[in-house]
## 1
Amino acid sequence: MVEAADRVTIRRRSLRPRRLLSSRLVSVLLYLLVVWLILRTALNGAAAMGYNWQWYRIPQFLLERTEDGFQAGELLTGLLASLILSGLAFLLALFLGLIVALLRLSDLVVGRAVARLFLEIVRNMPLLVLLYVFYYVTGPIFGLNRYVASVICLGVYHAALVSEIFRAGINSIATGQWEAAAAIGLSRRQTYRFVILPQAVRFMLPPMTGEAVNMIKSSAIVSVIAVAELTTAGRNIISDTYLSFEIWFTVAALYLAVTLCLSLLATHLEHRLATKS
Amino acid sequence: MSDTTPIIRMINVSKLFGDFVALDDVSLSVAAGERVVICGPSGSGKSTLIRCINRLEPHDRGRIIVDGLELDEDMANLRSVRQEVGMVFQQFNLFPHLTVLENLTLGPIRVRRMARPAAEALARQYLERVHIPEQADKYPGQLSGGQQQRVAIARALCMEPRIMLFDEPTSALDPEMIKEVLDVMVELAGTGMTMLCVTHEMGFARKVADRMVFMEAGRIVETAPPEAFFTAPASPRARLFLDQVLEH
């Protein structure tokens, strides 16, 4: 009896328009409708231009069939190069970011000033300009090739954001932890290593993953100095084949697949840490 | 070793926080093995006084000499002083990401350079002393407040200090847990440890103190043996304070 009454009230409540709109099924349908409208407009536009879709030519750029069986095509090779480039740059960003964060939190007046100067310069300069500076100016001076210049440029640019994540993480630790560590005689370095950073990592993991996603996205910019990676591979294929629509859709989908995986990981980590504490 | 050589000497020490005078020309000597209880109204500088002894607060004027070493900018000096001075905080300040045993062995391994097995044996011995040997593998968050504070005491003792500082060790505890912590402190007092204790627990003070220090507005107003202090405080301010805390 009670159950039946409950069911009636639930059904009645779910009929309200606002509830209806916020239900998951309706949201998905609305979303698909919007995507369909955009796609239809795009396809109509392409048809009006007389664009000749040749999707059948795309798979060879992902996987090539050779005598030895399947081999990664140009786009997959490019994606792998993008990931390696971003990975190297991210390691550099972590290293520089930690140093900048520690300098900003230190007692050294000069250290704090240097860190502030670094942050102001990097944060207020477009990534593209920074890349040109590293490649066309410091490149010839220090004999950096385009790959090294790209890694350093991306590493430096993201070090600014990474250092803020480190700083926030370190600041989130209560002062009592510093005092307790000092009281048993730990040095400042030991305190960071054994007490502060292991605790701060928990707070830093989710935003760091987000920053890794940003790194992969901004790594596309090095295509302007023709470093071999996914976007450059896409440009090269298009200049050979004129398949611009199909290739850019594919390139976008590849970036999306990687960054979505990382974002999901970040959400998962955030959720797990939130329930743990 | 003569009993008259003070292990802690504070000479005309002042400490400022901006314009606020936390310690105003304070002088205090503590003999080795002496147990001093510091009391006074809140904001009177009690905590600041003992936090200056291991330089958690650097003093602005005057001299502080601990076990023959003067506290100054010299970090190496400071680290050896901190090995001689254990501290217990109001908020326990255990390391939440480490187990109880790891909390206890961190200092011995990293500062005293002990081998891990020796450090663990030492840690278990002190956990026994504070009556919680069975909690060694738990994390601080899994323990009650009283247990956490006893772990904090054991952590300080693992450095085998000559002096122990207690900064309101029972103020953050639920009433039913205060006794277990005070019991451990009374036992520690029985071992001849030099102790400086900021506390409002007057029963504890009566039981263990060799000397009471009463502070107000950053100054030491009165120093007396507990008998005299509790029965006939010399200063009217101390009398008023005792009336307030002993009323119940």
Note: The mean pLDDT of chain B is 91.
## 2
Amino acid sequence: MTIETTTAGVLALILIMTLVTLATRFGGVFIMSYVRISPRVESFINTMASSVLIAIIVPMAFAGDAGALAALSVTAVAMLILKKPLPAIAAGILSAALVRYMV
Amino acid sequence: MINTAHSYQFQPGKVRSELIRMFPISLFVVAFGAAFGLAAVQKGLGPLESLLMSTLVFAGASQFAAIDMWGAEVSVIPVMVVVFAINSRHLLMGASLYPMLKDVSPAKRYGLMLLLTDANWAVSAQEYQSGRRNLEVILGGGLVLWLAWIVGTWLGVYFGGLLQDPKSLGMDMVLGCFLLAMALGGKKSRVCWLPGYLLLPPHWQHGSGCRLTRMWLQGHLPAV
């Protein structure tokens, strides 16, 4: 099934994308409202939160170029030393720009 | 249960301070939004259509992916599948905030989810693990990120030439670096899931407070 990208078609596509995204935004919360939060569920949630974070970051490092890898490693080191997010992020972005400029 | 229902009290001052806290990140989101706006008009989307997409969908990676599939005709099912796949992380993110979200009314609960992004979720989820309840960052942070995304798209649509290649400035790495900084910040247990942690000698792992990871490594973690 295809939609022609006329004005009406584009609006329909945007609406479809919005609804699909809304389903993901609401879905997890909706399902959880039927789950009783026991200590075990609680610890699952806590572990899952860390895993999701790592699952977003790791592909960026592996699928990315040398700049991406530089950005993430510099951010990690700077964060562990400085313990301040903003300087660490700035250093990471700067090193990505630098590596890409040089390579 | 009845008495404690919807007990979460939003502090207007905290919403404002979280909005300000996310402001520096939102500047980078403007740049990223500009890249999207430029890509969208180059793929044939109208200025208003691009803005409407950013306003309603508000999920950057999936918008870039959808734009990649754009043409004179667009296949609906593949776009839906790709958008769902990229945004499916929201399912887990929303679920992980539920212990806090259950304490607000359903209208507010789902209203907050409209503003859910990786960045404000990462702050809220990490603070929850340190024992702090922070839904204000979802609201305040989400609002400023949403506005930044719209303003960025608008800039890209009309002044796209200003920032031809945000990648050369490292702009594509802002979110990655931010999430990594959040993952590493504060409480010790946040480093537990880094690959490097697993390479540490056992007694170092033991000292680092990563109970769940340690149990998992030793095979003691019950299947959840």
Note: Chain B touches chain A through 80 residues (CB under 8 Å).
